[in-house]
Each structure stands twice: as C-alpha cells, then as structure tokens.
Amino acid sequence: YNFVSLSNVDLLGNFKSYHEIYFRNLHSYRKNKRADYISYKMDKVVNYCINKKKGLIVEDLSFEQEFSYGKKRNRKLSNFKTSALDLLERKCLKRGVAIRKVHPAYTSLIGKYKYSRLYNLSTHVLASYVIARKGLKFKEEIPARYKWLLAQVGDVIKPRLKPSSSYRNWAKLHDFFKHSGITSFKTSEVLQKALQMKHVLNSVTSEQPDNLRAGLSSTGKVDNWNKFWNFIENTNIL
C-alpha cells in the first residue's frame, strides 16, 4: 500500500477522526533518496501524534502475516513495513511520543465487519481504529449477528484456536468466508452462502431449513428476490 492510515481515538475507545499520509511514487526514487523520503513521511506521523497530544499504537510485525501478493512482492512489502516501523519507533522515542505494539491479528476483518456500518470508512482506516482500540486494551467481541451466522453452519467450520483465545470466533468467521468462497462480502452474497451451507447441514440432520422463508430454492439459490430482500431487512443480518 502507498499510504499510512492513522485513527484518533479517545480514552473510551471512541473514534474521533482519521488522517492518511501518502507515499507517492515511492519506488521511483533511488535508494538513498527513498530512505530520506520515508524518513520525511515518518516525521509527519510523529508530528500528527504530537499535535493530537496522543501516543502511537502500531502493529507488532514480529508476528507472521500473509499478504495477497506473490512471494517476492510479499517479502519486499514485509521488509519495507519492518524498516519503516523501526525508523518510526526510533523517531517516537527521540521526540518523546509513547509507542506501543499490538498483535495485528484480524484487525481488518474486525474493522470491516464490526465498525463499517457505524463509521462508513475504508477498510484501512477501520483496521487502524481496531489497532488503536487494541492498544487501549479493549476487547473486540463478535457481534450477535455474526454469532447467528456461525450458528447456521454448525460444525462445518472447525475452530482452529483454543476456547480461551479472544480471536476464536473471529477466526471461525474468517474461515467461514474463505470456506464459502465469499469474495465480495456483499450482504446478499454472505447471507446466501450462509443459507446454502445451512441447507447442506440440515439435509444431514433432517431439520427444516429456512430457505423457503428466505426466498431460496431447495439448493440454496434465490428463487424469489422480494422474499430474499425482505428476509435480509427483517433479520437485520449484516
């Protein structure tokens, strides 16, 4: 990515504002000039914190992360983020800005599916908001509508985290989307996929599925769009 997203929050974890700092044509610079340019941009991050009279909370990149690019580009991106954050940490310490690192797990997922309806901001800004809340020790409980969603698929998705993990349900939700082939994350696609999987599960347990009430056929495809959208509206699913 060619920018840094910063979220300003209060002590109660409420979102106040955001700011984005862009790295324009970063890879067009030669090595030495690129280093100076990154340093200049990191100064902007520190200045933002000083102006807001706030500390800085960032990702702890010691945890392994996956990026959706090729191996070579993934490595370059990871190395860039690590070097930039190391530089940022040194600048914060030099100028008296408190800095704290947090585990980056599921920050984008939590931001997208817990706060997007509330704030209508980009995924990157919402992820930075979740990082800020993590740094203030707030726990991100999965909303009731997603607990319902996971309940519809029963044991189709096997949990891969321990029951004591605060990320257990978020990991299950992530795996559900991946398992279902959901890529657009539109309300209609998520609900339709959930009910399709529920139909498969119920065909094994001999329970009556909700497909008819939701305007879906016995195979989970939309038969009646009016029923389908009414079902979405009445259940307030996403």
From TrEMBL:
Keywords recorded for this protein, A-Z: DNA-binding
Any one GO molecular-function label of the UniProt entry: DNA binding
Record-linked NCBIfam families: IS200/IS605 family accessory protein TnpB-like domain
Name the UniProt record assigns to this protein: Uncharacterized protein
InterPro entries recorded: Cas12f1-like_TNB
Keyword DNA-binding: yes
